[in-house]
Amino acid sequence: MQAVRDLAGYDRGLYGSNPMSRRKLNELDPSFKHRVARQPGGEGIRACFGCKACTAACPIETVEKRYDPRKIIRMALLGMEKEVLESDFIWLCSSCYGCHEVCPQNVKFTEVMFAIKNLAVQEACVPAGLTGQRNLLKERGRLYEVGDFENEKRAKLGLPSIKEHPEDYEALL
Ligand code: SF4
Ligand code: SF4
How high is the pLDDT of residue 21? Predict the structure, then answer.
């Protein structure tokens, strides 16, 4: 019963009072937390006791209340896989380790976030912008294309031009 109350409470927190957004218990995946815990860095997720110290330390939550590390953990523990993997917050997290430092349970939430991101990549829940950056890294070895314009500017500054070696980047990745 407590789990039902928790779910309703977190659901309201996430989606306001829209009853259409409520999730039924049988739509949840109780194995999700175990999958997160099996990822490197995800081991600590089940130790969270919901104290909210991470929330108070998070710079993203300070700017936008709906991005809350504790909420992500509670959703993961409740089996709300879809909501967790599709959350903007997992990509907005700045990996500042603020939550990690204050956690009394040593959950290491920054590492848990990496574990969740790895699962999101496996499930193809990645924002298009990040996929584009990944492709640039793979094809050019950097996040920005360097062409004739940039190389002419480099030449004026006495810098050597940048040449691309896609096969080297491919091998590195
Ligand atoms: S500080 Fe640690 S124990 Fe407290 S809610 Fe955050 S992750 Fe959970
Ligand atoms: S690592 Fe991410 S979740 Fe943790 S405090 Fe920093 S921005 Fe927030």
Answer: 55
pLDDT at 23: 67
Asked if 83 and 141 sit in the same domain, the reply is no
Q: How far apart are the first and last CA of the chain?
A: 48
Digit-coded pLDDT (tens) for 44-84: 999 999 999 999 999 998 888 889 999 999 999 999 999 99
Three-state secondary-structure class, residue 93 = coil
Residue ranges, the chain, pLDDT below 70: 1-23
One domain for residues 105 and 83: yes
Please indicate whether residue 58, judged by its CB atom, sits closer than 6 Å to ligand 2: yes
In the chain, the number of structural domains is 2
Q: 143 Cβ partners below 8 Å, 6+ apart? A: 133, 136, 137
Most ligand 2 atoms within 8 A of CB, residue of 95, 106, 114, 117 to mutate: 95
Ligand 2 centroid to Cα of residue 31, in Å, is 24
